[in-house]
Amino acid sequence: MIHFKGRDLAANTNLPRHVPVAPQYWLNLFTYQTWQEFLAAGGEVTGFRENRWKTVQNMHPGDYLLCYLTGVSRWIGLLEVTGAAFQSDEPIWKDNKFPVRVPVKVTAKLEPITAVPILTMKDKLPLFENLKSPHAWTGHFRGSPAKWPSESGQIVASAIHAAVRDPIERPFDPAKLSKVPPILKTASGQAVTVPEEEPATVPEQSTPDEQVGSAAGVSVSAAKEDTPHTEMQWLLAKLGNDLGLGVWIAKNDVSRSYKGHSFKELPQLKLVLPVNFDDATRKTIELIDVMWLKGNAIVAAFEIESTTQVFSGLLRMADLIAMQPNLNIPLYIVAPAERRQKVFSETNRPVFAKLNPPMSEVCSFLSFEALKEKLAQVAGFVNFLKPEFIEDVAEPCTLDDV
Q1: CATH number of 10-172
Q2: Which helix (DSSP H) or strand (DSSP E) does residue 318 occupy?
Q3: Confidence of residue 290 (pLDDT cuts 50, 70, 90)
Q4: Residue of higher predicted confidence among 358 and 167
Q5: Beta bridge partners of 395
Q6: C-alpha 178, offset from chain centre
Q7: Separation between Cα atoms, residue 267 and residue 245, nearest integer Å
Q8: Residue 43 region by backbone torsions, left for phi larger than 0, else alpha for psi between -120 and 50, else beta
């Protein structure tokens, strides 16, 4: 006989009093800051926004909260509900009250580096099945609490316990633990951001080595090509080539070179797009910085933003989504790590949130630094990797209403 640890419903059902009910599983979102604050307060009370009161009242002693760390998209702990829901303004968290609260106890706890990445569970969780867009799964992590199917909850709980018993360190970009832009709500309840004004775009500056080269008589045009933008374009194009994929480079950049390497020397470079689109779509995608192709299909598209503004590449991506809403390909904004918050702010603008699918559901942020670090790590076996490995390096641009 299977015995469930959970609440007894005999008081309001026809079940015999000794028959327990299986525990329910609930998603509990944390940022790194709110997780640290929760633990610092004793790890005995978790909280939610005021409008979650009705949902939280459905939690009962013996239920489990699956603790998900946003930013790095990892499972970091497991909590067991120990009492009835209540409301309180007693300070626990610095930036939010989270007045709707539940008493809990920590039954499993991990560190960010040993936490379980959600993407390692793609073959186990039903939420990854039949996705309409590359990041559609992130829709399950937009707000909490959210009740999870028992089967999925048990799979996650087991993975967390296994990670506690046998921890595996999985390095990540620490910038992913940083705060995201302030989340605002539209009249319909949709989460969006409104980017702050920034200084006008400044041209990319040449490096000291380039300036010396120019003074020594090296071609000024060659020096100008060795910009951060061109470097990233070369690295992404060469990576796609090494993965055995066809490579497209924006038609206005394809004649460039980086540190003496001509873009046209890549064996897998395509000078004619093998996909069939209408004229408007074709004109748009021809200017995307880098695309990876497999046969006639686009595997991934990358827009590189190395200057102050990140808007031009996003507009091109938005045009593509608007003209081809069923185009199920991952899109990446590639920018310096310091531009992370700017990218998140822009991708979640109301105008992009209204697209179908929303920009944030198909777009990820990939930092220059994380890309170069990963390329150094896989240099010896890059030919054996699948294109999907880039998903572990990038970060979905979706907002988590924590």
Answers
A1: 3.10.590.10
A2: helix 311-323
A3: very high
A4: 167
A5: 365
A6: 13
A7: 10
A8: left
Map out the domains of the chain as residue ranges. Answer: 10-172, 184-396
Among candidate residues 31, 41, 40, the one with its CA nearest the CA of residue 76 = 31
Single-letter amino acid, residue 197: E
* Nearest CA among 294, 296, 298, 305 for reference residue 330: 298
CA distance 127 to 137: 6
- Spatial distance between the Cα atoms of 163 and 114, rounded to a whole number of angstroms: 7
Q: With residue 33 as reference, give the H or E element that holds it.
A: helix 32-40
- Nearest Cα to Cα of residue 133 among 378, 363, 401, 390: 363
- Say what the pTM is: 0.61
Q: What 8-state DSSP symbol labels residue 131?
A: -
Handedness of CA 267, 381, 256, 347 (dihedral sign): positive
How many other C-beta atoms lie within 10 A of the C-beta of residue 78? Answer: 25
- Residue 135 dihedral angles phi and psi, to the nearest 5°: -110, 25
Closest alpha carbon to 116 in 163, 148, 149 = 163
Phi/psi of residue 281, nearest 5 degrees: -65, -45
pLDDT score, position 90: 94
Amino acid at 266: L
